[in-house]
Write a structure and sequence with these properties.
two-stranded antiparallel ribbon; 12 helices; globular; alpha/beta; 7 strands; Rossmann fold; 5-stranded parallel β-sheet
Length: 258
Amino acid sequence: MSFRREMRELTGTKVTNLCKRSAMREPDTIPLDKKDNRPIAAFDVDGTLTWADSFVLFLRFVAGRFGFVVKMVQLMPIFLAYRLGGVPRSAVKEKTLHVFLAGMSAEAYLARCRAFAQTIYPIIARPDAVARLRAHLGVRDQVALVSASLRDYLVAWAEELGVDHVLASEVEIVDGRLTGRLSGDNCWGPGKLAAIQANFGATPLVAAYGDSRGDKEMLAAAQNPSFRIFEEAPRNRILQLFSLYAGNHMELRLTNRL
């Protein structure tokens, strides 16, 4: 059975109804000291909450137009090896981090993470997905962003969204500089579910939202899994992406933010 068909059958048997849950359970009925027992709603980010890949956009944001192209060319051999099944996904991630971020000061990196979150996520966020996230917050669920993207810029966006939990891939920092390696596992596939269980224990996963194979285990564990249900994106999104990657849009925004 294909992965897409498997996900459609899985999500087709369970439907999230936030309106019904809201009517059954008002926010004020949950004591503040019982926060850790509230149900969890887990959201993948790239392709689910956003219509574009934020990890690659962040690399472009950091490296600039020319630097991005040069570094991506350097990475072509390992990209090809991954496609041919010669290297694991985590190795590609670490090689990419090394090429783009190794040696960068933690201070500069974190400043760019915040600038990126404040300027780029408002452009690439799906309105219908953000509305669903806010609906979960409205019924006092614990909302978590669960992503293979980098935690530091997701934390900055989570603050804007009012989300307290971010489970994502983390970069290693030694002596105030990025090493170009991951700190811990890549938060993808089984790693997403492992991160949820490690952080929330047996707390019910009431809903999960995803769009790819990397979300399979998380979706399978949820009471109400939703696969590729968010569709809102700009009609001119290809033009917008071209502008972000090839134009000076990012440089202008970065200059204004830093």
